[in-house]
Task: structure prediction
Amino acid sequence: IPMYYMKITAYAEELLSELDKLPGWPEQVRLMQKNWIGKSTGVRFAFPFELDGKAEKLWVFTTRADTIMGVTFCAVAAEHPLATRAAENNPELAAFIEECKKGGVAEADLATMEKKGMPTGIFVEHPLTGEKVEVWVGNYVLMGYGEGAVMAVPAHDERDFAFAKKYGLAIKQVIAAEGQEFSLDGWQEWYGDKTRGSCVNSGKYDGLAYDAAVDAIAADLAAKGLGEKKVQFRLRDWGISRQRYWGCPIPIIHCPTCGDVPVPDEQLPVVLPENVEITGAGSPLARMPEFYETTCPQCGGKAKRETDTMDTFVESSWYFLRYACTDNATAMVDERVAYWCKGGIDQYIGGIEHAILHLLYSRFFTKLMRDVGLIGDLGEPFANLLTQGMVVAPTFYRELDGGKKQWINPADVDVVTDERGRPTGATLRADGQPVVIGGTEKMSKSKNNGVDPQALIDQYGADTARLFIMFASPPDQSLEWSDAGVEGAFRFLRRLWKTVYDHVQAGLVAACTGNNALSSAQADLRRKLHQTLGKVADDYGRRKQFNTAIAAVMELLNAYDKCDLADAAGRALAQEVLESAVLMLFPIVPHIGQALYDELKPGQDAGKQAFPKADPAALVQSEIELVVQVNGKHRGSIRVAADADKAAIEAAALASEGAVKFMEGKPAKKVVVVPGRLVNIVA
RNA sequence: GCCGAGGUGGCGGAAUCGGUAGACGCAGCGGAUUCAAAAUCCGCCGCCGCAAGGUGUAAGGGUUCGAGUCCCUUCCUCGGCACCA
Result:
């Protein structure tokens, strides 16, 4: 049981509400955190009772106070104090409680677990009606949430319903919905739907819908001093004690006379010993008197240093702030954090598996450090978050005697494909004998499907390996590893290299800066260049989708190859295109990028250049192509002046070959013109 | 069970705001070059069809001039959560 906690629940409300102020975070992660924090609004109230001659109260929490008149019993968790007391003179109940505490912790069992319970023999009083209500111990009640006890309304809670049916407890309908018949035969969805229906069999509350009923009942409970509205969070406090070596020591000294005393500032940090013996059983620190024997900072007497260490999530919750002040040997962080991390880290990248723990702890720590004055007004650590997908790879195996599978690394396998390229079989390269093709799964040691990128780097170079990985899929998607595509990345870089070399061979020229001297085809290429510049900047900066950025540069190079650039204007344009292409790819292929840039601009450093900007003037077109559709089907295209009005476009479209053919002489019912895109003629 | 993301050619994927589905690349096919091969270059490449054309984004329905994209129903895959009162 952990002894030290971080009071993360104190920040539950802020951690939840500020999720809405993180536009740079994936929606999915924000939602997962929202569900994890789990805010629910309800009523906390008490059932009074008398036990051993003393007046007491059984507190419960409910989001369905409107069904309070339907309570037919109460249920408490096995760990609840009332259960413990009831078990004192009831061995059968004690045995049941023991059974509950033992089993049912395994997550998979919980969903299918049968509802079980046992009466305590204790009766409490309904706070509004004064009726006697029996208290049961139920294995479906959690001690760690709310009060560890619930009011049971079998008619309107699915779990209570199942429980009541099993043990023959009363079921009292107190909510009715129009057009719906309540029956004890089986659970129906609408019984528990608070958005439908209103109170019945509930005395003065009859006819009230959910909100009004909850308000009225909460007010009545409050008037009796037995309850009030309450916000409840699912989030628990963070137990940070670990009985292990790896972690920051908890700086507390236990003194028999002074109690738990913090290690004084001047003795910090408490440093882990290095001569440890790691046995795998318990913390090595607890077996090292030279570590834990110390004196009390207050009274100077013999004392024991804490041997628990902190959860390693503690340090990972603020390490990134430390980058702003790594040379400070006397403090955790200093005022430089407020400057460098203002508004949050610009871009944080991590696996989606950190969505809840690390990313929530970090947000908590940032708020905590802000509130103790360490980092100015920085309240959220990460302005933009990118969660990357997993890398998966095909698996191969052979069935050994006894059905055990021997997993074979993809690197040792040759895959045979049919004439369409579909895999039909695979053989082990070492012996040429067949192996079974398994599924495609996350790379793991157990499936032996990990691929070391070093082999690619050795064969093709780091730039090719990087280009291939970036081109294969967007970073937030999982990537299926197959080195088939590497050839394509390699070919592209070789082609770029040759293109630059051929251009430079003919002599150096200055890059084109305007469209004046260009032929129409050259102007088209220059427009393509500046469109590409805009797209790549957007893909890198906003969309974080590098595969399409690379594809756009490939398209640009394809267009370059098709364009006649032999004249002087063409040479200047070639220079502009190639300089830009190299700079666009430079973040992904820095080695080749620098080598080529040095060819194009001798002595210049590609990494020090500004990212080239799209020139709006290069994007202007005098004539544009529009698609012609008839009844939404693509039937041809027309070329019109870029500034053509709607009437002229309609006329041109109606006169086009495709329109004439498919209209078959009928008049158009309607013509839809989508500016810059298409014309749809409705027959 | 609940929440979330997704399902597009032989494959990875593109289509950013409802507007030409399949960009870009891999694999494949045909050709050029070569003594031959590698490399390179040119062309083809969803499916049916000789073609005209039809059809096609998991399945079915709907909204719309127009749907991969929006709505409803169903199926499947992946990820997260797990009786949260």
